[in-house]
Design goal:
By secondary structure, this protein is an alpha+beta fold. Among the domains are: 86-186, Phosphorylase Kinase, domain 1, CATH 3.30.200.20; 190-415, Transferase(Phosphotransferase) domain 1 (Transferase(Phosphotransferase), domain 1), CATH 1.10.510.10. 35% of the residues lie in helices and 9% in strands. It has 19 helices and 10 strands. The strands form 3 sheets. A 5-stranded antiparallel beta sheet has the order 1-2-3-5-4. It has a 3-stranded antiparallel beta sheet with strand order 6-8-9. A hairpin with a 5-residue loop joins strand 2 and strand 3 (132-139). The radius of gyration is 24 Å and the shape is globular. Bound molecules: adenosine-5'-triphosphate. Adenosine-5'-triphosphate binds at residues 113-114, 116-119, 121, 134, 136, 167, 185-188, 191, 231, 235-236, 238, 248-249, 251, 413-415, 459.
């Protein structure tokens, strides 16, 4: 979502030179998505003119020249609706209902806590309530309908969801000067990728059950509200300091209607967690893709590392076949491949037998049974989140622990794991420069760390696709317009002041804000609950005093590690 600062396609993204016949059809998949096509997804509820234009583009017969991606400034509505800049209210209409923008200088950045393809995430202090929040800074070029559409979809989806295991969008901060938008979320202390990658942390089966129960409950809610997440992975599973897990990052999520046939892009989900039907090129899919990812997470929590860390789509399929067996004739009949792909069924040689029960023989029978269902090659056999929640895994001893009974960990995020690796790398380089051997550090680091590399990220391709759309229409370098990402992170300044802008340049600054100052709190973007000073003090203590002795670390040994 938002605008994209991409990178060139990595050579390791390429599927050329593959050992299997599957490469042919993978390449044809890639060809299919090379064109910047608009997904025919259900976004009709965004009732704004821009979306109507997008629909027209979808319906346009092939061969007709595409309308420029650039919005016509003359046609855009110059009116500012309820305090929102026109570019946002125009595209986000319904999603902004009942909200007013928070002003940029009412937050103070504390530190950068995450970075994704579309955004940087900051820990910040809400200067009005004293509450610690996470600000996801999305950069969006107001002239690009595509980037706006993705952003609008994420906001709309987030506002439709309301569940304890789904991250809640608490507000929006806009800054007209920089064309950027901040999404305000509750601050979450950890993400599951960070915990799994932490060398000192292992999970008991009770704890795994607790995390999985929360993940599946969140997914059940999303699916019941017609939302597919399409990017379930550890770094998108956020955990607070009371053990509550919330599904985050709805940047790739979409609305779906299980009763209707609907075509969607298959270039979703980070590679390690991507269901086989997506890799095969299916464009009509459903909740099964999220359940496959949940199965990968279950395996990862029990095994202590990602279970199928492929580097390319070909390798990913190969790993899937080696663990889950080669697809049967029946599978090919059941999955609905687009006609352009039917000629090339993926039949790798040799044919593999399903080995899930053999590879994970050290898991409990109930865990084995659940992972076997979730990692079914046929999406229909994966069933639903509701069915998974009713499995024996959650009802047999040891029962899932309560979130509050989970160990208290020091703040751990994927970014911390990345920083740790970066530290190891520097040590190695220093040693190398001094002529010492760095082999020991590297071996240990590799044994524990298996984070998704950029090449393994499915979003990259779609991001590149999106970026192409943006850069084609906007050939000027982004850096001419925006500060480079590293300049976003200046600390201790109100959010809107972290660049060179004067306070007076910032929309919704103190002058404009005063007009809202008599409104009840919940009239600002999202219900902002005032917090007690004691909460702030507690938060400060928690975040300031990270001495290892104050954290209870769980070091119980879990089942044997297995990797395929
Ligand atoms: N509410 C939050 N509280 C604390 N940290 C958060 C929060 N939301 C996101 N983060 C951190 O920021 C990281 C990136 O956030 P997010 O996944 O939403 O961004 P993204 O640009 O969509 O990333 P990606 O490209 O990896 O999908 C997360 O992995 C997480 O560590």
């Amino acid at each position: 979502m938002g605008c994209v600062l991409g990178r060139p396609v990595s050579s390791s993204d390429s599927v050329s030179g593959s050992r299997h016949q599957i490469s042919t059809s993978l390449e044809s998949n890639r060809k299919e998505v090379k064109e910047p096509r608009i997904e025919p997804e259900t976004i009709s509820s965004i009732v704004v003119p821009v979306v109507a234009e997008v629909k027209e583009e979808n319906e346009k017969p092939k061969g007709e020249s595409k309308r420029s991606n650039k919005a016509d400034p003359k046609r855009s509505n110059p009116q500012v609706v309820a305090g929102w800049p026109s570019w946002l209210s125009e595209i986000c209409g319904e999603a902004l209902n009942g909200w007013l923008p928070r002003k940029a200088d009412s937050f103070e950045k504390i530190e950068k806590i995450g970075s994704g393809t579309y955004s940087n995430v900051y820990k910040a202090k809400d200067l009005l309530t004293g509450k610690i929040v996470a600000l996801k800074k999305v950069r969006c070029d107001v002239m690009e309908k595509e980037s706006l559409r993705f952003m609008a979809r994420e906001i709309l989806i987030l506002r439709r969801l309301d569940h304890p295991n789904v991250i809640k969008l608490e507000g929006l901060v806009t800054s007209r000067m920089s064309n950027s938008l901040y999404l305000v979320f509750r601050y979450m202390h950890h993400d599951l990728a960070g915990l799994v990658a932490s060398p000192d942390i292992t999970f008991t089966e009770q704890q795994v059950k607790c995390y999985m129960k929360q993940l599946l409950s969140g997914l059940e809610h999303c699916h019941s509200r017609g939302v597919l997440h399409r990017d379930i992975k550890g770094s998108n599973l956020l955990i607070d300091d009371e053990g509550v897990l919330q599904i985050g990052d709805f940047g790739l999520a979409t609305f779906f209607d299980p009763r209707k046939r609907q075509q969607m892009t298959n270039r979703v989900v980070t590679l390690w967690y991507r269901a086989p039907e997506l890799l095969h090129g299916v464009v009509e899919y459903s909740v099964g893709i999220d359940l496959w990812s949940a199965g990968c997470i279950l395996g990862e929590l029990l095994a202590g590392r990602p279970i199928m860390p492929g580097r390319t789509e070909v390798e990913q399929l190969h790993r899937i076949y080696k663990l889950c067996g080669s697809p049967s004739e029946e599978y090919w009949r059941r999955i609905k491949l687009p006609s352009s792909h039917k000629h090339a069924q993926h039949k790798p040689l040799p044919q593999y037998k399903r080995r899930v029960r053999e590879v994970y023989k050290d898991f409990s029978p109930e865990a084995l049974s659940l992972i076997d269902t979730l990692l079914a090659l046929d999406p229909a056999e994966r069933k639903t989140a509701t069915a998974a929640l009713m499995s024996d895994f959650f009802t047999t001893e040891p029962l899932p622990c309560q979130p509050i009974d989970l160990p208290k960990y020091p703040p751990t995020k994927e970014i911390d794991a990345k920083r740790r690796d970066e530290g190891y790398r520097r040590v190695r380089e220093n040693r190398k420069a001094k002529g010492e051997s760095g082999r020991r550090t590297r071996t240990r680091e590799r044994a524990h760390r298996a984070m998704p590399v950029p090449e393994a990220n499915a979003e990259i391709q779609s991001n590149i696709d999106r970026m192409r759309m943006i850069t084609h229409a906007n050939a000027k370098s982004k850096s001419e317009k925006f500060p480079p990402p590293h300049q976003d992170g200046l600390l201790g300044y109100p959010v809107g002041l972290s660049r060179r802008f004067e306070p007076s340049e910032i929309p919704f600054s103190s002058t404009s804000f005063s007009s809202y100052s008599n409104e009840p709190l919940q009239m600002w973007s999202g219900p902002l609950v005032p917090v007690e000073v004691s909460d702030i003090a507690a938060e400060t203590r928690r975040n300031g005093g990270c001495s290892s002795s104050s954290w209870r670390m769980d070091v119980k040994v879990k089942g044997k590690r297995a990797i395929v």
